[in-house]
Write a structure and sequence with these properties.
This protein has 164 residues and is mainly α. Helices cover 68% and strands 0% of the residues. It contains 9 helices and no strands.
Length: 164
């Protein structure tokens, strides 16, 4: 908890952007083994939001951070915070430059059925997130999240019940 308090002080200072990025990279490493996907997503979003990354003329850094943000957001169990961040990312102009991210966000924010495998499934599966010893489990979690979206929206429509 103390670390989070100190990180808020880092965010206000422009000259400490490198430190903020390093902090969030360490937090990602901390959360990865316990599969805390939304916390990982938030760290990637913080990296993406730093001026050093978002204003960089070399688009590879912000594209990588944005792609990881969207991917871990899709892996996160759905709740109001996840929904809010999905809507914010969906309206972000830079998301339009990453078509696979835009398509995934569009699919996850509508009440339509999502066809599995996704049209970009090979691209997503080749990402480093799904590599290594925990990679297959993460891809299985990704599949479950997509299926959850399909089941919840379809079931609520069939039962004439609004999702909570």
């Amino acid at each position: 908890m103390r670390v989070r308090c100190d990180s808020s002080r880092i965010t206000a200072k422009d000259e400490l952007q490198d430190l903020k990025i390093t902090y969030h990279e360490l937090m990602i490493q901390y959360y990865l083994p316990s599969a805390k996907y939304f916390e990982i997503c938030q760290s990637y979003f913080s990296i993406y939001s730093t001026k050093l990354i978002s204003d960089d003329t070399d688009a590879t850094k912000w594209k990588a951070a944005l792609k990881k943000t969207v991917l871990f957001l899709a892996l996160s169990p759905f709740d109001s915070e996840v929904s809010d961040l999905m809507q914010r990312l969906k309206s972000d102009k830079k998301t339009l430059q990453l078509l696979s991210c835009k398509r995934l966000l569009d699919q996850l924010t509508t009440d339509e059925l999502i066809r599995w495998p996704l049209s970009d499934a090979k691209e997503w599966q080749s990402d480093t997130v799904f590599q290594g010893d925990k990679g297959p489990q993460r891809f299985e979690d990704f599949h479950k999240r997509i299926v959850q979206h399909v089941c919840c929206s379809a079931l609520s429509e069939v039962c004439c019940v609004c999702e909570a």
